Structures are given as C-alpha cells and as structure tokens.
Fold these 2 entries.
Entry 1:
Amino acid sequence: MVVTGRTRNAFVGELARGFESHRLRQQFFKFVCQGVNVNTFWSKTIQSTELLDTSRQEKFNGHNRKLWFHLLQVRDNLKILEVGCGSGHFINMIKLYHPSCDVYGIDLDDEHIRFAKEKSKRLKIDVHYQVADVKHLPFDDNSFDLVFSHTLVEHLPFDDFVQEQKRVLKDGGKLIVMRVDMGKNNDKPFTYLEDEINALYAGIPSPKNARVGQYVEDPDITMQRLDQYQFKNINFNYNRIIYYMPDALGNKKEAISQIERNYQTKLAYAMFVIDRSKVGSKTRKRLLDLLKRQYEERLKLLRSNKKIFDYQSSALITISARK
Ligand SMILES: C[S@@+](CC[C@H](N)C(=O)[O-])C[C@H]1O[C@@H](n2cnc3c(N)ncnc32)[C@H](O)[C@@H]1O
C-alpha cells in the first residue's frame, strides 16, 4: 500500500511521537521528509500558493506595513519564526524591512515552501524556509525571540498548535497569534457587474472541506489557554486592515497597483474555484470576461478622476503573550 498526503503525515506524526527527545523526533522527521513530496494538501485543495501570495501582497502592502510590524512587535536584530508561513509573504517583508533579523518560516505544504524559497531568492534575501509540522518544530529549545502565526491557530487543536512554539521560544520571548475574524467584513466593493459575477459563483458547486477552520474559537478562550500554558502579559488587539481603498490613497500610481492586485486576487480565486469545480468552458469564459471588464471599468474611473471610494478590509485578531 502506498501512503500519501495527510494520511502519510498523520502516520509519520504518530511514529515520531514515539521518540522521547525532540532532537530524535527532529532527526526522524528530517529523514522521512527529505526529498519527498510530503504534503500539498493546502495548496492543492484549499488555496493555491499563487492565490495565497497575491492575497497577502494585497493585505500587507506599503499602506499598512507599519501597522503589521507594530502588531507583530518586530524590531531589529530579532530571531523570528513564522509557523504555517504559507507562501512566505510576511516573513519576506520582515527580512526586507528589518535585514538585521534572522528569519525562519515553516509550513506543512511542500508547494508553499518551494514557492517561498524561490521568491526569497528572487528578492535576494536570506530567509530560512523548511517543510515542517508545527507539532514537531525542527529547532532547539529556547532559540527564538519571536514566534508568530497568521491564520493557523484555527486549523488544529490548541495543544498541538502551542506546545512546540512555547518550547522553541526563549524565556521572555514573544508569541503572536493572528487570525481573521471571519464574517466581520462590511466591505463595499466596486459594484459594476458584481451581481452577475456573484450569481455565477453561486451556481458553481463549492468544494467542501470540513477540517479547515474547525478549531476557531473566541479570543478570550485562546487567552485563557495561553494562561494555562503559563504565558505572561497576555494581550489582545482587534484591528481592521483596510487593504483596498484606491481613491483614498492620493497617489495614482499606488492606486493603480492596488486595483491591479485586487484584480489578480479575484482572478486567482476564480481560477482556483473553476479548476476545482470543473465548470464548463462557457461559464469559465463568462466569469473571466466579467472580472476583466470590471477591472477595466474600475481603472477607467480612476483615470477619469471620478472617485467612488470603494473599499475592502479584513478584521484582524492579534493575541500576544510572553514566555
Ligand atoms: C490559511 S494558510 C495561512 C498561510 C500564511 N500564514 C499566510 O497567512 O499567508 C494556513 C497555512 O497553515 C499551514 N498548516 C496547516 N497545518 C499545519 C501544521 N500542522 N504545521 C505547519 N503548517 C500547517 C498550511 O499549509 C497553510 O499554508
């Protein structure tokens, strides 16, 4: 029998738990995972790497970079790890703007890590990316000043999520847990063709995946859990990240690039949905045409100086704690 993907990972995880010391567990993982297509579950079934990356470029843009760095408590000369780093956009930005930091990113998904490595090479920055499970971090005890995650905590049991992060944090080191408060958007997108586009999406069967986001819980519960793990200075922030509001930027060039990024995200999402749902070529063409027309119309408005102040945002929960 050939064991692949998640089944194989779960199996490997069970075996690894048999090792007493984390060093042995790491070596075992390294041995089993080396050069093998361990897991592309996320990139193939939830969100393609390209879609993840364009959506993160949208969110973490020049306009709100300071807010992200403030929430992540990034300072110079820190040793930083992101768990579940996906396409690596956050980690790459940290290294670009704080080159004195020593930065690491791990993710379970092979494809995400391959992409992250290539991108950091293109950006000519020195970032350490590795395929690994947050349940078995391949790092020594007490080795990081800051360990953070963005939209990971809701996907696995809290004990699995936190134990290893606590172990690799230095005493006094910071843990930052970020996630989006889903369903709390009150966006006002550019509405030209929006109804037609949404009607088309509604007709496409949505791919189901019960496992994703199944451990989401209110921030006070997460904070109580951190308290039980004896973290100190447990704190909570709630922010709205406005990632798209081109008319308010007062900078046409930047506004155009925001509109373009927004279109790329929508396009990547449409392609992902289309590919996974295997919709007919007519629907596919109709949807892509509509998105393109909507994008072109939005650019035209901007160029003719007609302001509509459309906006999109996301509700971000940030919990921080000290080991
Ligand atoms: C919603 S994505 C967020 C990615 C990234 N943090 C971001 O915001 O761009 C969740 C990520 O967690 C990763 N992931 C899920 N379970 C994991 C685990 N047990 N260990 C490490 N990564 C995991 C997935 O592969 C995926 O890349």
Note: The domain at 39-322 is CATH 3.40.50.150 (Rossmann fold).
Entry 2:
Amino acid sequence: MGKAAAGNQADMKGGAGGGGGGGKGRSPTPTPNRGNGAVGGGASNAATATTATGRSVRSTLQASKTILKTVSVFLASGKRNSNNQAKASAAAREKRRQLRQRKMDELSGKINPKLLENLRKKTRFSKDELDALCRIYRKLVSNCQYAAKTLSSSSSSAAIVKPHATVEGIDRIVFRELLHSTFDIVTEEILMERIFCSWDKAHEGLPLRLEGWLIGLSTFLRGTPAERAAFCFRVYDLNTDGFITKDEMFTLLRNCLIKQPQDEDPDEGVKDLVEIVLKKFDLDKDGKVSLEDFMGTVAAEPLLIEAFGQCLPTDSAVVSFFSTLQV
Ligand SMILES: [Ca+2]
Ligand SMILES: [Ca+2]
C-alpha cells in the first residue's frame, strides 16, 4: 500500500513531469515562487529597511545628541572665549583711547608733562624750545590739513585721497617747503625724499609725527658731529641696506659735474669721481662704504660730511631759525 501509494505518487509525478502540461505545470510553479520570492524578498527588504530606519533614527538621535553636546561645548567655550574677547576688546578700546588722546594732544600741540620730560631727554632742546617747536609743528600740521582739504575739494579723485592720511603729521610737500625756505637746503628730489625718510631716527612712520619731528630737528640743528654724520649716512644709503655702494654714489654724484657736450661718454667723469671718493671713504677696502667707513672718514675730515650732497642746514640758517623761535 505504501509502495503503491509511493508508486502512484511517482507515477503522478512522472505523469505530471512527462505530460504535455509539463510546461504548464512547471510554468505556474516558478512564477508564484518568483512572486513569493519577490514578496519574501520585499518583506525581508522591508524588514531590513525598518531595521535600517531604526538604526538611522537611532544614529540620527545619536548624532543630534553629539551635535547638542558639541554645541554646548562650543557655547561653553564661546562663553570662555567671549570673556577673553571682552578682556581683549577692553584692552584694545583702552589702547585706541590712548592713541586718540595722544593724537589729540599732538594736533593741539599740547604736550603732557610726562611726554615733555621724555622729549627733553631725547632731544637737545629746552622746555621752552620744545614748546615753541610744538607750536611750529601744529602750524605745519594745519598747513597739511589745509593742503589736504584744498586737494580733496579741487581734485576729481577726491575719493582716492584719504584726508586722514595727510592730517596726522607733516607730509612731504610741507617738509620740502620747510627745508627750502627755512633751512636753505636746495637739493635734488631724491635727496629731499631721503632726508624726509631719514629724519625720524625712531622710525615712527610717515608722515612725520610730533616725536619724530622733534628728534629729527634735534639732530639736524643741535646734533653732535657723530649724530649728524650718521644722519647723512642714512640719507646717502639710498636703499637702506647699510652700505653706500658705487651705484648709489653714481646716482648721488651724477649731477655734480657739468657735462661737456663734446664728451664722448658724459658719465666718464662721474665714474672717475666715484672712484676717487670711494678711495677716500672705503677704509676697509671692500668696495663699498659702511657706516664705520663713513664715520671714520668724516671724523678725520669733517668737511666730507656732505660729500654726496647737501642734507644739513647752513650755519646761518640754524642761527636765524633759533632767533625766530623767540625763546
Ligand atoms: Ca645702499
Ligand atoms: Ca668699506
């Protein structure tokens, strides 16, 4: 019975397998299977998706927690930073206030007693002389302001002109005018520029501020021979590299000689002059003039101090300048 049943089943299987409807029989089978598979797959995918969603929700929560943590850490550090910033900005405000005060004092020509004492030590002027020189500074600065205003109202490029760039001190134009008219210095543009730049030994910056103006004037009018020589050296060292080279000498001496139209090489004479002057100044024979060379030479022969062009006031100009101070 069992066998027969088995046989029948086998027959039926065989029949089903061998029958023409085999294709039919097989065909519907895989389809639902595929369907099932698909559904099953879908379900499992869905399950995976759900799990993934759960995970992603969890991870999102995690991430938000982390973000919150980060934010609170950030806020805490921000608070610390803002405390620091508050301190820093208070210091900056105080510094700005001091600068403003200093600027106002400068512009009004007023010197506070501490600065006056400081300047008296740094310069060779008396208190009264310093007062008088501050008054001149104030006048020159107001000239600069006036010039700046005139320039900005008459010039079409007014927007480019920064008025405050010219009002904070003595600018080139006023300085040049002063050297010409007050100190009898008639010199080339290149030297004038170098005198302006070398004036302020402390390098406070340009335009010239009150302190730079006074210290520069002190060297200019009352400087020791060594101070004056060092000033001239700074002027002649055109590129401020610490040496006066042959090229710089050539530039400085170029216009000393009157050129003869019949000269084949008009620079020949200047080159010869450069060689002669170099021989005189170059004490250590390295082909250029250092500060030591210059100071040594000028100490031995004081008249050579302005060998490369006039950059100091004449004695009579100094005398008449002090007489106009009326102190
Ligand atoms: Ca140089
Ligand atoms: Ca040398």
Note: The radius of gyration is 45 Å.
